[in-house]
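Technical appendix A lists one of the benchmark inputs used to test multi-chain prediction within the project. The record comprises two sequence entries:
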Amino acid sequence: MRIGVLGTGRVGQALAGKLVSLGHDVKMGSRTAGNEKAKSWASGAGAKASEGTFADSAGFGELVINATGGHASLAALQIAGADNLRGKVLLDVANAIAPDSGFPPELFVCNTDSLAEQIQRAFPDARVVKSLNTVNLSVMVDPGTIPGDHVLFLSGDDQDAKTQVSGLLGSFGWPAERILDLGGIASARGPEMYLALWIRMLPIFGPNINIELRRRAS
Amino acid sequence: MRIGVLGTGRVGQALAGKLVSLGHDVKMGSRTAGNEKAKSWASGAGAKASEGTFADSAGFGELVINATGGHASLAALQIAGADNLRGKVLLDVANAIAPDSGFPPELFVCNTDSLAEQIQRAFPDARVVKSLNTVNLSVMVDPGTIPGDHVLFLSGDDQDAKTQVSGLLGSFGWPAERILDLGGIASARGPEMYLALWIRMLPIFGPNINIELRRRAS
């Protein structure tokens, strides 16, 4: 599959690297073609890896991943272009962290709205799916590194898009029964607000954590 | 121990009942003495149970529990009176659910502030501890009903107050190693915002759920 990964940071690099290792053709996108981090990644990741602008990356991908910083996501996607996103699954893994808000950071949107909803409203012809934002990059692409039946969440208005993302997450090592579908894209408010809890566990337990859902035996 | 439980709803009744069963003297508080739900509870709960106004309950308790609805908590505590709370541990279990915000509900405070912080600011001489708000009332008082090492969170500025609350939670069945101290009272923003995720799991998995923290083996 051809996949566009928007973002050259650690999350983008982890996802892009995993996707190439799984046999996908991946184009990493950044604000300007020839971005040093993107060039360095592409040259080290083999023949299936390439880089370009956000528009190059989104146009290339049959599926597009938003791995930009949350505060920069809408601007990055505008540069990527609505035409390059039309009809495509857009997997949004970003968190709505307000820049310069210290530690623990604040969110720039929550409660009555979410970043995922902002993206879906701005790009109504993209099929936005929110997932992976509740775990660290190394857990994203290697869930087996943590013991137990820890979970991911999935939000999106398009069921087929969620099925496609579930399949991709399955190839990362996330079993289908541990990917919890919360409903439409507005349900992303839940996992996005969970960041406020995750970020407060970070100094105590480190980044390589996740939660397992425990239920009363019926 | 003498404990004041503010609130006559299902959470207040569950906590008050558990506390009486553990041998504590419990006075349930409501807006007006002789509240029907409080009277009914007290008459059915034995000699260690009584009821009165918020002020009666707070004055009675060596430890006070805020089990009122989050939107009504500050008003209830004002009626209870700062003098009746001075120096006491005030365990806040409420969630900041905005009334009439539909389902899933919105929070009336989050992200840059929390209900627990609002309470601590309004009653600087009380020793506010936030806990228990991340689980349903039946899980609060009977954690063994759910399998696994699922956790609670603890936030508060006063370490001794948190130790006292941990002991009380231990008597409910919560082992100390499953009560995660997140830090000062501002850390309550995390567990309070987790409600947005919990409430979206509710229709799917029911109320008798909780999360276990999973960590990479070191």
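Chain A has nine helices and nine strands. The mean pLDDT of chain A is 97. Comparable benchmark entries are summarised in Table A2.
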